[in-house]
Design a protein that fits this description.
The complex is a heterodimer. Chain A contains 2 helices and 11 strands; from the N terminus they run βββαββαββββββ. Chain A has helices spanning 62-67, 95-104; strands at residues 25-26, 47-51, 57-61, 71-78, 83-94, 112-117, 122-126, 136-141, 144-145, 155-157, 170-176. In chain A, the strands form 2 sheets. In chain A, strands 1, 4, 5, 8, 9 and 10 form a 6-stranded mixed β-sheet that branches. A 5-stranded mixed β-sheet of chain A has the order 3-2-11-6-7. Classes of the chains: A mainly beta, B alpha/beta.
């Protein structure tokens, strides 16, 4: 269906072709989106867990987490509420590193992952979308510690999916043998969320 | 929660909305009354995606909260014109009665309230953040003949008295309903003789206006990121359970979440 809106011209920005997924626009701000109050977990109480189907867990305290090898990454991010932000710069620990470390402790990976966060937020991502340098647990943004309102102390970063998958305040990755809906996914948002296929809501192609 | 809230498993289809009328709420805010054939229904607090298409096929999308209650057959969107707003400047400018554009929804399902959810209800809004809260107030007024069963308070922050959206309707609603208490905060230019709050919402104001934590109100906060961030943080500091606080933020770019 193509319905022309009488008198609408729009504001086209040159040079964005191929960089903006369908239905998105570029912002220079960094909007904040979350469903409830911002949790504030003291670093002394913060830890990060990888848990397998049998309940075995690998766990890192904040200081142990800081000792892990770090990666940096510059990526475009795309929020389902339509804004995209180009060239955001992140630093953190690659999921490859965490899974590798966990495997040496006897943790057995499974094909799907639920990210579980302070404040009760959850989101589901296939493991294949988290490994091979596709994702990290990020705690530095643009050279500074990540602000709580943007997910600090640490958030998941999976920039090739809509940004609600990059769960703020993440504390645990729980392996699952089948895909299950997380928080927004159970409220009608797409189970996978590829911005380039415009998978915003349940039933989108 | 109804099926609408749970998120239907079928596709959220694009539909054609026809503008029945436009109403200027304030200098920069306009309500669009829309006829949307096939509209599947919504809950108070839901939003829609609007898609505009130019002659050459260029498209732009934005999200807007629904202002009308589920009981009304026409859909009302209240849109604030943002500086450089690609879509809002069209909806609040060029658009007129009889024009058509595409929309799809309802979208959301967490920041929603139905009378069956009960209360007490605490609604806190800033600027155009009032829109989804107004849908809740309208729904409550229509669906609950006995308003007192859901005692409700609204704390509404606006820059100037003339920026207060739905001002007369809010006056009418509270005048006819003792269980609805509306408090305004005017942050920039309070009118002459103003005896209400003339500052941003802060902890002291919330302690005076909001329900006590022990009253276990359902709390909805909608507005700009700084307002929502401050209000939600102060509510938690006052002892309200984080689980009782649902937030919706209108980012500086005009996007809603």
């Amino acid at each position: 269906m193509r319905l022309v809106s009488r008198g609408f011209r729009g504001k086209r920005v040159p040079g964005q072709a191929g960089r903006l997924p369908p239905g998105q626009y570029e912002t220079r701000d960094f909007p904040v989106l979350s469903a409830g109050p911002t949790p504030r977990t003291p670093l002394a109480q913060w830890d990060f867990t990888l848990r397998d189907l049998d309940g075995r867990a690998a766990r890192w305290s904040w200081s142990e987490f800081q000792m892990l090898p770090r990666v940096t990454r510059t990526a475009d991010i795309h929020c389902v509420t339509k804004w995209s932000k180009f060239d955001t710069r992140w630093e953190g620990v690659s999921i490859d590193t965490l899974v590798g470390e966990a495997e040496t402790q006897g943790i057995v990976p499974a094909p799907y992952v639920m990210a579980v966060c302070d404040g009760g937020y959850t989101t589901n991502v296939p493991l294949a979308d988290l490994v091979d340098a596709k994702a990290m647990i990020a705690f530095i943004y643009e050279g500074s510690p990540l602000d709580p309102e943007h997910g600090g102390p640490a958030r998941l970063l999976v920039p090739h999916l809509y940004f609600w998958k990059s769960a703020k305040w993440v504390r645990e990755l729980r392996f699952m043998d089948q895909d299950e809906a997380g928080f927004w996914e159970s409220y009608g948002y797409h189970i996978y969320g590829d911005p380039w296929r415009e998978q915003r809501y349940t039933g989108d192609p | 929660m109804t099926d609408v809230a749970a998120g239907a498993s079928t596709r959220v289809e694009w539909r054609v909305a026809t503008v029945l009328s436009v109403f200027e709420e304030t200098q920069s805010v306009r309500t669009l009354l829309l006829d949307v054939p096939g509209w599947p229904g919504h809950l108070a607090g839901h939003h829609v995606d609007v898609r505009l298409t130019a002659e050459d096929g260029y498209q732009a999308q934005r999200s807007y909260s629904i202002a009308s209650p589920p009981e009304e057959t026409t859909l009302a969107l209240t849109v604030e014109r943002l500086e450089d707003g690609e879509v809002s400047s069209y909806l609040c400018g060029e658009l007129r009665e009889g024009d058509r554009f595409e929309l799809r929804g309802p979208i959301g399902g967490y920041f929603v309230w139905d009378v069956s959810d009960g209360g007490p209800l605490m609604l806190i809004g800033g600027g155009s953040g009032i829109v989804p809260l107004m849908a809740m107030l309208r729904h409550r007024a229509i669906a609950l003949p006995q308003h007192a069963s859901v005692p409700t308070r609204l704390l509404y922050s606006s820059r100037r008295w003339d920026d207060v959206i739905y001002r007369r309707e809010l006056e009418r609603l509270s005048a006819s309903d003792e269980s609805l208490r509306i408090t305004h905060a005017i942050t920039r230019e309070p009118p002459a003789g103003w005896r209400g709050y003339s500052r941003r919402i802060d902890r002291a104001m919330l302690a005076e206006v909001a329900w006590q934590p022990s009253e276990q109100a359902r709390i909805f906060v909608c507005g700009s990121t700084p307002l929502v961030e401050a209000v939600a943080t102060e509510l938690v500091a006052l002892g309200h359970s984080p689980d009782s606080i649902r937030t919706e933020r209108f980012g500086p770019t005009g996007s809603t979440s």
